Every structure is written in C-alpha cells, then in structure tokens.
Amino acid sequence: MLRKFHKIVFLTGAGISAESGLATFRDPSGLWNNYDAEIVASLWGLQSNPTLVHQFYNELRKQMALAQPNQAHCALTYLQQNSSADIHIITQNIDTLHEKAHTQNVWHIHGQINQLRCVKCGKITETWLPWTEHCLCYSCHGKLRPNIVFFGEEIFFSSQIERLLADADLFVAIGTSGTIPPASSFVQDVRKHSSLTVALNLEKPANYRDFDIVIEGKVSKTLPCFIEKLLCYQ
Q: Which of 62, 211, 223, 226 has the fewest CB atoms within 10 Å, i.e. is most exposed?
C-alpha cells in the first residue's frame, strides 16, 4: 500500500517519549502519579494552588531537560532529510525531544514544558529554569503560567492542524493510545480524503479500526524500519 507521498503528517504521543525514559501519563511510576492531575493540569488548580502547580512543572521540566531522543525521533529527522515530501509532525508531547533530534515542522498542540505564557499580554518566554508564582512577565509584569494546554482548554494551532490533515495523503500515528481527544479523531479527519493511515504503537491503539495498517512493537524499532520502506518510494 506504500507509494510516493507528497504530504505526510505524523502524530506522536507519549509512547515515543517513553522509550527515552519519560513516563507516560498513566505510568504508575511516573511523576503524574504523585500529583492530582485535576489540580496540576487545570486553570482552577493554578488559581487555587499556584505553588503546587509550579512545583510540579519544575520537577517535570528537570526530567525532560535531561531526556535524549531515541531512534524513533531520529528516524523522523532522517526521513525529512531524505524525502522530497512535505513532512510535518503534530505532537501531543510537551517535551522537546523532536527539537533535540533536529526535526523540523513540529507542532506542539499541548504546549511545551520549557515555555511560560503571560496571562496578561500573551508573551511567551522560553526557559529551563525553575519558576514560582512570584515570577512576572518581563514585558508587562503580568502573572506567568505554564504554556501548557490544561483540561478544558483548546489545543494550540487548531486551524493549522485542520489544514495539515486535509492536505495529507499519508497519516502516521506513533505511540498514541487513541483515547485522548481531539487527537484521537485526527485519523478520521484524514480518512475523509482517502489518505493512507498507519498506526505504530506498543499495542493496538483504542481507535485501531480507523487505520489501514497497524504495526505493533516498540516504536524505536518499528518506525525506523517503516521509514526505510517508505523511502524506497520517495
């Protein structure tokens, strides 16, 4: 079913970062397990307990700063460097492992761990340093919050993502459970245009029936192999 593709969109989830040592949201040994997600990932939590929320993201940032990309991240960079196709990566992950692997055209729909956003003027500041609720915006002295999509908030770049999915002739989901909206429905949006859809995950994702091809196994192993085959047509 592989052929020459012109517009390729990858969707990456926690599974691709897990192989770099970053625990998934549901991992019992992960940092999330020690905090109430309803507090640390909500606007209500930030307003009611800012000290706890900032403490959580400071710890998470420290972990993510040390993590290194694995073979799956590097395989995406390799494809971009050796294919004439227009290739974009939509990621649900807030780490910067794609950037560390020098991947281009990365869309962080849930935000980035190394960014702060001013709630007053909207200015974004990048930093790996710890911060507290007393840190203020350099431009307007407004309060800062993690530039992360909290529960109930709209994903970033929604209009751009809609266009990417509409134009894609190949859609590949990597390391995603297929349970978190709206990303879990991206494959359905792509299928409206008769595009080829592929899922690579440790096990079948919840929405596996929406994919033409499902490849199970560690994505650090399966993705490089898939990309080698894909490049034969590019």
A: 62
Q: What is the DSSP letter of 148?
A: E
| Entry pTM | 0.95
Contact 124, 116 (CB under 8 A): yes
Cα separation values, 147 from 9, 15, 114, 183, Å: 24, 22, 8, 19
Place of tokens 């992360």: 148
**83, pLDDT greater than 70:** yes
Which residues are designated catalytic?
110
Please, what is the angle between helix 219-231 and helix 71-82, to 10°?
10
pLDDT in tens, 177-220: 999 999 999 999 999 988 999 999 999 999 999 999 999 999 99
Q: What angle do CA 13, 15, 16 make, to 5 degrees?
A: 80
The DSSP bridge pattern shows strands 124-126 and 106-108 to be: unpaired
Measured distance CA(207)–CA(117) in Å, rounded: 33
What whole-number distance in Å separates Cα of residue 28 and Cα of residue 24? 9
Residue type, 133: E
Are the C-beta atoms of residues 196 and 181 closer than 8 Å to each other?
A: no
